[in-house]
Design goal:
With 122 residues, this protein is mainly α. It is 58% helix and 5% strand.
């Protein structure tokens, strides 16, 4: 199931809130692509909460997401607080780094392909 959902996050796939189904065409002009609906908007909301909310409201939101901070950490400047929250939200970045290393060609390999393309393949 997660693989099926992941496939629907990319490209021109839309989530219809009314039918709760995925579709290839937007239901109306307000329908958002699935990536925006499920990834970007929740991330924007979390960011806005950290930047804009204070005290108990932020604490309740973060606890609802399973993010626990020490009382002193809530008093940190916005940049540091955002770093702490996102660090707990996303967890260890090792998986991301491993994916980049595994699937991104080295600059030398990539450059060779680009030079070949720009010269018309000659």
């Amino acid at each position: 199931m997660p693989e099926d959902f992941a496939k629907r996050l990319w490209g021109d796939v839309y989530f219809n809130d009314k039918t709760r189904k995925f579709q290839r065409t937007p239901a109306d002009s307000k329908t958002k692509r699935t990536f925006v609906h499920f990834i970007l908007e929740p991330l924007y909301k979390l960011y806005a909460q950290v930047v804009g909310e204070e005290g108990d409201a932020l604490k309740r939101t973060l606890e609802g997401l399973g993010i626990m901070l020490k009382p002193a950490q809530y008093k940190a400047n916005t940049r540091e607080l955002l770093r702490l929250v996102l660090q707990q939200f996303f967890g260890d970045a090792a998986g991301f780094v491993s994916m980049v290393v595994r699937h991104t060609p080295s600059p030398q390999e990539a450059a060779a392909g680009k030079v070949w393309l720009r010269t018309g393949g000659q």
